[in-house]
Amino acid sequence: MSVATTATTHADALLRQARDASERGDPRRADQLYLQHFRHARTDVLALTEFAEFCLQTQRPRGAQYLLQRACRLAPVDADLRIQLGYAHLALQQFGLAKAQFAAAIAIAASDAQAHHGLGVSLLALKDFAAAAAAL
Asked: What are phi and psi of 116, to 5 degrees?
């Protein structure tokens, strides 16, 4: 078995363990395992997204924001990543940044209801009521 294969297998095992810890309701252990996995697989978009979702669930939007920004750089035309990043920005009350991410998601997937909803919420927070009504 090559060193690269061993590293990949180890990273996969860490991700499975992190998921299990999260499902068992052990956020502290899940966080440690997601972080260890992140150190081994910094370019795994799926893992970055899972870790970001975990961060949002555990009330850490800044961590989610960082992970999702990284994932968006790796997969710039993924509308779902843009939407998730938009929601992380909303959680941080960064309404202009959220608006930009939801607009980017709409440019990629014009009929995505979540993107339109997020854009509407962002525009409401920015007090652009006419544009919000059009987005929703």
From this structure: -65, -40
Question: Can you give the length of the chain in residues?
Answer: 136
Cα-to-chain-centroid distance, residue 123: 21
Q: Note if the pTM is more than 0.90.
A: no
With helix as H, strand as E and coil as C, how does the chain read?
Answer: CCHHHHHHHHHHHHHHHHHHHHHCCCHHHHHHHHHHHHHHCCCCHHHHHHHHHHHHHCCCHHHHHHHHHHHHHHCCCCHHHHHHHHHHHHHCCCHHHHHHHHHHHHHHCCCCHHHHHHHHHHHHHCCCHHHHHHHC
Q: What is the pLDDT of residues 16-51, one digit of tens each?
A: 898 899 899 998 998 898 888 888 777 889 889 989
CA distance 113 to 67: 23
Six-digit token pair at 116?
A: 């339109």
The Cα 100–Cα 28 span in angstroms is: 33
Residue given tokens 């961060």 in the structure block: 55
Give residue for tokens 């992140």.
38
